[in-house]
Amino acid sequence: MSAPITSADFDRAYRAPITFWGDIRIPKEIQALARQGSPRSSLELGCGVGRFTRYLAQQGLRATGVDFSPVAIAKARARVAQDDVRPEFIVGDVTHLDALSGPYDVSFDVGCFHCFDPQGQRAYVSEVSRLLKPGGIHLIWALDWTPSDMTLSPASMKEIFAPGFELQDATKSRRRLVRSHWYWLVRSPSRG
Ligand SMILES: C[S@@+](CC[C@H](N)C(=O)[O-])C[C@H]1O[C@@H](n2cnc3c(N)ncnc32)[C@H](O)[C@@H]1O
To answer: Has residue 22 got a pLDDT over 80?
Structure first.
């Protein structure tokens, strides 16, 4: 079976009781992001059922999660329905986020960026660039070999995100037992 790419593919996957990418614990990188300069707002791209955005809301952030799968967003909203502090979950394509204006203090993505071809990557970078405050962190976890058969590496990520972002750090990861990286990107102070 090929990896899901379209919103219909992901809808199908999210109709199952569990997905193979569902985390139980919050990665330490997401926990660290919540402490980066005491952020007040966060935006998650490709939030799925919203586990990480919910965590950030519980840490006191005004947290927003976007995903193009209506099935995932319905599950995300249902999960937080009884929470005291509810994050915002929006159905949307992260390459065209016209409904959002930001700026957000931090943004992140766990497993979405590696779904894109070069055209999608450019549109994604342009949207994060527009929505993240200058100096803000954008954290990405991405596979080294993408579902669309491309490779991602610190060198290619640096190039893809230039000149609007600087790659502050890239850490090798074996999350879910696959070769991958956590990328810490900083929005340049001046818009590029
Ligand atoms: C591997 S899942 C990860 C979900 C979640 N971040 C997690 O770790 O549980 C990738 C997510 O990206 C979403 N996605 C992929 N392309 C997208 C796009 N163009 N716009 C919005 N969401 C997208 C999918 O629907 C899916 O929920």
So the answer is: no
Q: What angle do CA 4, 45, 23 make, to 5 degrees?
A: 65
- The parent domain of residue 79 ranges over 7-14+27-187
Is residue 41 within 6 Å of ligand 1 at its C-beta?
A: no
Which single residue is written with the structure tokens 């005004």?
62
Which CATH number belongs to the domain containing residue 158 in this structure? 3.40.50.150
108 lines ligand 1 (CB under 6 A): no
Q: Is residue 124 part of a domain?
A: yes
Number of domains in the chain: 1
Classify residue 2: in a domain, yes or no.
no
Residue 22 lies in a domain: no
Tell me what percent of the residues of the chain surpass a pLDDT of 90: 82
- Ligand 1 lined by 95 (C-beta under 6 Å): yes
Q: What is the pTM of this model?
A: 0.95
CA of 47 to the centre of ligand 1 (A): 6
Say how far apart CA 48 and CA 75 lie, in whole Å: 8
Ligand 1 centroid distance, CA of 111 (Å) = 6
Residue 141 is assigned to a structural domain of this protein: yes
